[in-house]
């Protein structure tokens, strides 16, 4: 049996949380690490002169979330929806290789509480994002929300409110 499929409310929650954290930019830009990025944080195959529609960006996000979910599908048990969404957002932000090398993933594989591990990842391009002058404090906020989602302290709906997400689809948000 395969666990942790990206379907239903977990899929909606992951799209909402990760999409809100990443933000939508239809034209390429360089992220904090100097990587050419577009849409909802996509980096694969992005070229300087690309331009994407909102629909293309949404499709890229869905495909990318599915790819980043693969290590979670390899676990031999079902994660709770909040742990799943928090870990998937973490993986989307840092990459599957970072997840696979992390203590967080080792703890998940051993069915241990991994929620305290998110806040250890507060660096971007070698900068400590806890320091205001490094202009990357959003990473600290992201890790805090991932941690609180993981522990169940926050629901997806509450996390989105903290992020200033506009409630454009009340039915989707009520399902979370």
Automatic annotation (TrEMBL):
InterPro entries: Bacteriophage_GH24, Endolysin_T4_type, Glyco_hydro_24, Lysozyme-like_dom_sf, Lysozyme_dom_sf. Gene3D superfamilies: 1.10.530.40. Its EC number is 3.2.1.17. GO terms for molecular function: lysozyme activity. The keyword Hydrolase applies. It holds the Pfam family Phage_lysozyme. Transmembrane segments: none annotated. It is an enzyme of class 3 (hydrolase). The keyword Hydrolase applies. One of its GO terms (biological process) is killing of cells of another organism. This is Lysozyme. It comes from Vibrio albus.
């Amino acid at each position: 049996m395969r666990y942790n499929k990206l379907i239903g409310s977990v899929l909606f929650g992951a799209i909402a949380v990760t999409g809100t954290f990443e933000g939508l930019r239809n034209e390429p830009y360089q992220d904090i690490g100097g990587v050419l990025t577009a849409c909802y944080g996509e980096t694969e195959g992005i070229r300087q002169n690309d331009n994407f529609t909102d629909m293309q960006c949404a499709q890229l996000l869905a495909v990318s979330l599915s790819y980043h979910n693969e290590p979670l599908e390899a676990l031999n048990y079902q994660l709770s929806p909040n742990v799943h969404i928090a870990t998937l957002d973490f993986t989307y932000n840092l990459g599957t290789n970072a997840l696979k090398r992390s203590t967080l993933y080792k703890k998940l594989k051993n069915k241990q509480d991994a929620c305290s591990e998110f806040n250890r990842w507060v660096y971007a391009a070698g900068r400590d994002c806890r320091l205001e002058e490094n202009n990357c404090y959003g990473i600290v906020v992201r890790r805090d929300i991932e941690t609180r989602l993981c522990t169940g302290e926050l629901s997806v709906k509450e996390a989105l409110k903290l992020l200033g997400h506009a409630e454009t689809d009340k039915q989707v948000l009520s399902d979370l």
